[in-house]
Amino acid sequence: MKKVLVAGGAGYIGSHTCLALKNHGYEPVVLDNLSEGHEWLVQFGPFEHGDIGDSEFVGEVIAKHGIKDILFFAAFTYVGVSVTDPEPYFENNVSKMHDFLAVCKKTGIENFIFSSSCATYGNPITVPLTEDHPQNPVSTYGDTKLMGEKMLKWYGQAYGMKHVALRYFNACGASHIGTIGESHNIETHLIPIILKTLLGQRNHVSVFGTDYDTPDGTCIRDYIHVDDLANAHVKALEYLENGGESTQINLGTGTGYSVKEIINAVEQVTGHPVPVRFEERRAGDPPVLYANPQKSREVLGWIPTHSDLHNIIQSAWNWELKQSQTKV
Ligand code: UDP
């Protein structure tokens, strides 16, 4: 089995990607400092506990496991927080990522799959978003991801390491295997917040902004099941292994849903009314983001099969129910 290094593999998307990698014949070695991730999410291969910014440690892990391929998830990911407190975002997502890349260069890493984001586009000029849409982020988070893409571009050009930057839209849902799912220390994402509210862990759902230029005034996003995202990583790795050139690819369904539509869908799936409060806009939120998925189909042959909205919500609901029962 070919070993690959999954930096940030103890997190939400990382752990689902480890499962997909294992199902496709790879052995995922997880490197994670557990600042956001959880050791119990490392279920599909060896675990190396440490920091992406610890160059000596990273070099040792790469040598020990004979690594040539990296999947890189290690990043802070909260759009709103990144605007109010940018310092850890630049430190982790840019400075430490660069330290990590320098080790990759030194150790002859060949392929690098990078978690980028639709947040790199900023406020869209046109939707659906294609990969050549101008990138002008409106959040610190988006800017740090754009810097990650740029570091990879220049490193690739100068030193030959190939990469695929995967620009995720909104990751959500949980694997049907039932042992991995979304579990953030501070939850800021819409779907888990709604579900936790239904479980009594929060009083209400705040809807951030009702005066956007959208049909119902709330923000529109492209929600993609985490298992579909995970499979796209395997396809991106195979693409580079088969001689593909460095590239950037959107990972979304092509369909956008408003915050109000998501709340309605949760009410339908769970049968429970959602207590809502309408509040001010959140900093850093573009009004509308959804993908043109054509390039993901053409280059990777990737078609989402789990991302029907009801399926997403049902899988996330199953996970939240299980989590709440475990905690009791
Ligand atoms: N959102 C909201 N209330 C919440 C959390 C999120 O209204 O408690 C909105 C948020 O403003 C955005 C959308 O839901 O328009 C998706 O936000 P999320 O944080 O889930 O993902 P993001 O798009 O920021 O990556």
* Ligand names: uridine-5'-diphosphate
> Could you list the spans in which at least 5 consecutive residues all have pLDDT below 50?
none
| Total DSSP E strands | 13
> In the CATH hierarchy, what is the superfamily of the largest domain?
NAD(P)-binding Rossmann-like Domain
Rounded to an integer in angstroms, the radius of gyration calculated over CA atoms is: 19 Å
Note the quaternary state here.
single chain
Give helix % range. Answer: 40-55%
Shape: globular
- CATH topology call of the largest domain: Rossmann fold
Spatial order of the strands in the main sheet? 3-2-1-4-5-6-11
Main beta sheet, described?
A: 7 strands, parallel
Secondary structure tally, helices: 10
DSSP strand content: 15-25%
Derived structural class: alpha/beta
CATH architecture of the largest domain: 3-Layer(aba) Sandwich
CATH class of the largest domain: Alpha Beta
Mean pLDDT: 97
Structural account:
The protein is an alpha/beta fold. The chain has 2 domains: about 1-170 and about 225-250, Rossmann fold, CATH 3.40.50.720; about 190-220 and about 255-325, UDP-galactose 4-epimerase, domain 1, CATH 3.90.25.10. The chain is about 40% helix and about 15% strand. The chain contains 10 helices and 13 strands. The strands form 4 sheets. A 7-stranded parallel β-sheet has the order 3-2-1-4-5-6-11, sandwiched between helices. The chain has a two-stranded parallel ribbon with strand order 7-10. The protein has a two-stranded parallel sheet with strand order 8-13. The radius of gyration is 19 Å and the shape is globular. The protein binds uridine-5'-diphosphate. Uridine-5'-diphosphate (UDP) binds near residues 193, 205, 221, 282 and 285.
